[in-house]
Write a structure and sequence with these properties.
CATH topology of the largest domain: Rossmann fold
CATH architecture of the largest domain: 3-Layer(aba) Sandwich
CATH class of the largest domain: Alpha Beta
Largest sheet: 6 strands, parallel
Strand order of the largest sheet: 3-2-1-4-5-6
Number of strands: 10
Oligomer: single chain
Structural class: alpha/beta
Number of domains: 3
Length: 347
């Protein structure tokens, strides 16, 4: 019962804290005092009025609504009405202006990346450039992340995208800003290379960023982009879960396409959630745990239209691509499959 009462009181305590912080309690007290004094003054000059009627008249007069159902007949009552009108307009104007200012300031703080966010299970994108824009566009094209909260950490002036679920933290990628982005409760952190730096400093910054992220939340899934394959070992030692070498990846796609024409088109479709089919991961169906890969492959294609390409062993071992037909699939493994666009798996 005590816990229920405490939870019920939280909104009221938050409201009181807000009113105190914005100095609205004094203003509300002044408005209330003006209404009560006005009602009492009307009764003094017109004793035939009841206090509830006088109070109603004072409220209507202060707010300048003017229903006209009650009107003072005495000179004193009318003078009190004039005082209520003038002071009421000023006080209510201050009250509404303060409230509006709070909301405008909150919106500006959010747009300028000055807020901190208490989120859980979200994605954090680090740095802002053309690559990050495409990553965000792909994430929003996937049903699993279409409405998911994403926090962007970037050293730019304002939020670059009109997206209500994109939260912006302005500044460099450091411990303070990662904490403002809620890294302790984040599910994934994507660290895109800083294009303003040369390859060496860019990768050095990436390794340092991985170390910072992993120290703040060892459970988070960290994905980092490197410029050079030489620094992969450093990133692995820093604790990165996935490392993508942009130049290496592009080179391999180009060399493969040179020998097997059309491969790049297929890869572009599979790696983009915006068109065609998607390359995703899904859990092993309960009915196929402990059975062979061939049985699972056939059933997935027949029943769900998916093509299984690889097994991701539980615990983060190396992926088994194109497993043997008799390979036994464990219940806690995950599958890499080709699925129709919009049929995203579980993250």
């Amino acid at each position: 019962m005590r816990a229920l009462l405490k939870n019920a009181a939280r909104p009221l305590l938050a409201l009181l804290a807000f009113l105190r912080r914005e100095n609205l309690l004094r203003l509300m007290a002044a408005i209330a005092a003006l209404v009560l004094l006005g009602a009492a003054g009307l009764i003094v000059f017109e004793p035939n009025r009841s206090f509830p009627d006088a109070l109603w008249w004072a409220i209507v007069t202060v707010t300048t609504v003017g229903f006209g159902d009650i009107a003072p007949a005495s000179l004193g009552g009318r003078l009190i009405g004039v005082v209520l009108m003038f002071f009421g307009i000023g006080m209510l104007g201050m009250f509404t202006a303060t409230i509006a200012g709070v909301f405008v300031e909150k919106r500006l703080r959010k747009e300028r990346g000055m807020d901190s966010y208490d989120l859980a299970g979200h994605i954090i994108l680090c740095e802002w450039n053309d690559r990050t824009r495409e990553i965000l566009k792909d994430l929003r094209a996937d049903p699993r992340a279409a409405e998911a909260p994403i926090v962007l950490i970037a050293d730019i002036e304002t939020n670059p995208v009109a997206d209500e679920q994109l939260f912006f933290v302005r500044g460099k990628l450091n411990e303070e800003n990662l904490k403002r982005a809620g890294v302790e409760q984040a599910a994934t952190v994507v660290m895109v290379g800083d294009r303003s730096l040369d390859y060496g400093p860019r990768d050095a910054k990436a390794v340092l960023s991985v170390l910072t992220v992993e120290s703040l939340n060892p459970a988070v899934h960290s994905i980092v982009e490197l410029a050079s394959e030489e620094n992969v070992a450093h990133c692995e030692r820093a604790g990165a879960d996935e490392i993508i070498v942009g130049a290496e990846f592009s080179s391999r796609v180009i060399s493969t396409a040179a020998l097997d024409h059309g491969i790049s088109t297929v890869l572009r479709e599979l790696l983009s959630a915006q068109v065609g089919h998607d390359l995703i991961t899904v859990p092993v169906p309960e009915t196929f745990a402990g059975r062979t890969f061939f049985d699972l492959f056939s059933a997935l294609k027949r029943e769900q239209g998916m093509i299984a390409l690889a097994i991701l062993p539980h615990g983060g071992g190396n992926a088994v691509t194109n497993p043997d037909a008799e390979t036994v699939v464990a219940a806690d493994d995950r599958l890499v499959v080709v699925a129709a666009n919009g049929r995203g798996g579980e993250r």
